Amino acid sequence: MSLAGRFGLVVGALVIVAAAWAFNDRVFWIRWFSQPPGDTVLLNWQWYQPVDVIKDEPTSPLPNAGEGDVVIAQDALAAAQAYAEEFDSLAFLVAHKGVLQLEHYGPGQDRDTIIDSQSMHKGLFGVVATVALDQGFIPSLDTPVSNYIPACAEDERRAITVGQLLEMTSGLAQVEYGTSAFAPGQRLFFGDDLDGPVDGIPMVFEPGSAFDFNHVNSQALHPVLTGATGMSYAAFVREYLWDPIGGSFAQVRLDHDGGTARIFCCVQTRPMDWMRLGVMLANGGRINDTQVISSDWVSRMMSGTARNPNFGFHVWLGAPYSGTRLISEPQNRRAPVSAPFLADDVMYVEGRGGQRLYVVPSAGLVAYRAGRIDFSWDDAKIMNILLGGIQSSEDGAEGEGDG
Questions:
Q1: HSE of 187, CA atoms in CB hemisphere, 13 A
Q2: Which of 45, 75, 277, 362 is the most buried (most CB within 10 A)?
């Protein structure tokens, strides 16, 4: 056979092998090539299949402030809305003690708009896990993860606890999340097997010894929740959180039909549902006449740790202020914080590039923002505008009473 012929056979064989490999991983490639462009991902939430619908009901809005019920100064509300509009926000809502002070939507959007949360799902899961702890499904924060993930019982990972996963101090390795389709982390976003990669993640530092914000910590909590409750993720959220807060629509992505939910990213729901969640948390776990979570567990969820005083159960905390917040001790990564918050109990659920739910129990303040993915979004700036507006309104009311 000629050299050209042999070369052709080798190329043909390689093509066959590549085709077989791609076919075996076809679900990943279908999702990879069908994902929406990054600047449209928040509203293009229907492209992914399969999903598990948590609930599908009409929107249940919070009451609107009537005349005399607006307790945040109008100039502060206007300034906050202007800042949100500067960042092309799809939705920006503000409530005080469960009453809407501001409800603003971008062009073409309204109360029924469904928005992808990006990593805000992590914070939502922090609430879900707190419910499971409060209800006794998970015995304690010290419960070994190996009780629910058998692969962890076979090596040093048996030392990892549920609390360490929630607080991002488990010691589990990071996964590379490069933009290439061949980066291992992309399989967590688009692959059809989430449990296998999580089972295989090694431990790289002693549990509890360092803070390391890591998608794997979140995803590893899925088998903990489903194993502890005997329920699917969507079913548990519906019964113990979404129904009690009066939530409307929500859905989660599955790796395959009947499979594992992606809880480190991307729940799809409406702005008002985030607001109802925030009102419940701001009110010590209670909304209307329903105590969804005990106030003690809400307080614990919003408490920092020795490794990171600005991080609770998958949620970020505004105090104490140091000019930065810790992202990873092993990688020596920190993010800037522009200024101290005007309240010591600011908590926020964070999603990529400025997707946020803010809760300030001492001020009865809840705010939600979704919109253009832009990492220059300033948490302290927006919240201090609103907190300052509450203070000026209260000062004005006191002045009128004294006169």
A1: 15
A2: 277
